[in-house]
Amino acid sequence: LLIENNSNSFDIVFTLRSSKLNNHKGQISFPGGRLELGETPLEAARRETWEEIGIVGEDMSFIAALSPIFVPPSNSMIYPFVSHLLSNNFIINPDEVEEVFSIDIEYLSNETNIQFETRTMNQNEIEIPCWDVSKKEKLWGATAMILNELLFIYKEFKQNKHLGGNEF
User: Fold this and answer.
1) Is the pTM for the entire model greater than 0.85?
2) More confident call, 24 vs 41
């Protein structure tokens, strides 16, 4: 979710997942969740955003779909979408979300704010990119991968804007 900020830019909305959840508890994520029978991924994203942070579909303007990503630890396929958020009247569901916060896309796209850490995954040490944006947890994993794709697109639009292209 993108929301306009006071700097004539956009913030990206994140959630800190509840410690009550079975998977990825206490991690930074985007609103979202599992498909229900008969739903499309976009319908599920809108429903889950309502259930998690109280934003109704009418307050989100769909922009684009990003690349699907498979997450082995939860055996999940994520279908990320980008939407412009028209309201920030968040109503947090404490069973699913501990906190909602937003970060300026300019801060996130500044490469000096990206850190790299070594973590052990499936008995292998791997270097992962992350952002230190919360007192409780770093932004990493699937959320960082999705964010990275969005930031790549944002930088492309920003570069084209300087060349006479449309705004992001």
Assistant:
1) yes
2) 41
